[in-house]
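quick one
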Amino acid sequence: MKNNNLLVVISGPSGVGKGVVIKELLKSIKKLELAISATTRPIRVGEENGQDYYFFKNEEFDKAIHEDDFIEWCNVHGNRYGTLKKEITRINNNNKIGLVEIDTQGAEKIKHKYPEILSVFLAPPTVAVLEERLTKRGTESKDAIKKRIETANEELKRIKHYDYVVINDTISNSSKEIQFLITKSFDL
Ligand code: 5GP
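structure w/ guanosine-5'-monophosphate:
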């Protein structure tokens, strides 16, 4: 992790459409590779170890912290998540740029440590639109949506720590915008 940490960090509130935008970016920029994070949260149905996350036991996570294996790690919703140094090194050594989707605290930590990385916050046009999208998605209860909106308001307070804020009006527009930022920042 010396000089060229080729890394793109994307954050944004739940329901803003990060997943779809990231898929679009990975499709259109061949040099981009998703970096898998480590987490202590239980594996969900349909997830695979090493594909969605590296699922660590608490002791494994403690050991990784102790051995300074993380670029950053944070507590998110009661579980620990961390970006592994060796994952980014592996990607960069393959002549590729890493992409991580992490929470706002983690993004702030990475940017502080490695100012050369590119950080982008994907924001909804308005919080009302985000609430509408979450309601339409229908995967969360009313209470859960309320919590997510509260979290989104907290996250929006931290956007000043990002290099760029991109408004997700449509998937196509925002992925093109981020694509442009990546191309410009890494001289592709
Ligand atoms: P989930 O458990 O739903 O996959 O992810 C929950 C949250 O963890 C998301 O908001 C995501 O941004 C965050 N997250 C995933 N990986 C990392 C990581 O490596 N570091 C940090 N700080 N947050 C992460």
